[in-house]
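Tutorial handout. Part one gives the primary structure; part two gives the three-dimensional structure as tokens.
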Amino acid sequence: MRTIVTTDSVARAERFDHWVSEMSRMFAGLDTRPAAQTPFHGQAAGDNLGLLHLSSISAGPLRVRRTARLIAQHEEDFYKVALQTAGTCVVEQDGVFSTLAPGDIALCDTSRPYSLTYDTDFSTVVLLLPRPMLPVSPEALRSLTARRMAADGGVASVVGPFLRSLGEQSRGCTGLAAGSLMDGAVSLVTALVTEKLARSAPTAPQDAMMLRIRTYIENRLSDPDLAPDSIAGAHGISRRYLFKLFAAEGLTVAGWIRTRRLERCARDLAGSAAAEQPISMVAARWGLLDCRHFSRVFKAEYGETPRDFRRRTLADAIRP
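Part two.
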């Protein structure tokens, strides 16, 4: 469902409070303060793109903070990818400060405090991406959060224009197209961070192996026979070492496969292109052949049955 926020029709004295109240529908758990004494103005548009959330924001000077207290009140498990399109932004996380100019990209982890300061009028495109979708360990990404990624070459020069265009055109993306664009966005962000990590420091052998394994799994989610033995064999490692790699990140092999399959099912169930397909067909497409088991694990993950999830998300998509 598309969310629109604007201060155009609000009295000057009430604009900032209106902005904060309305923007909380897009981004929960943020402390927003004005960064200038001038009358505030702002407009934003947000869309869901499969399991991602994409927002285009233009506003006057402000400061946005996600504090430890707010994290405790509003738990999130996202990476926030921000593309600066006009004005400048100072981004901070874990004591690292970077200034973003138009075209620059930065990444923040919403599970840890961060801040974004805009001292002048600005525009930005923000992509919220569930952390499990990025096949790089959070520990490895700590060295990149709040770091300026200039769009003057490499993968960043592709990601920047893609996000800008996506921010302009996302309203018309639904069904299978939205799912494909979601996959493309995740792939590009993955390529961006792996390129930056490779340049900043040599990749540890176990990190490189995990990236290959996660990519292998991602490409075979539709195979119902995907299992630890076949994954280990394809990479020339033992089953025990495979389990050790996942345990080091607090994961299990089976749990990771299940999570990624459920995310693909949720994407399809929320799309109009598969609205007439039986739920069992959607589940089978992603390697989940036992309908009762699928319904049980889906409800445990999303808090409602696949049928109720589909009904609600499709209704939200057509609601003005």
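Part three, for discussion. The longest strand covers residues 78-86. The mean pLDDT is 87.
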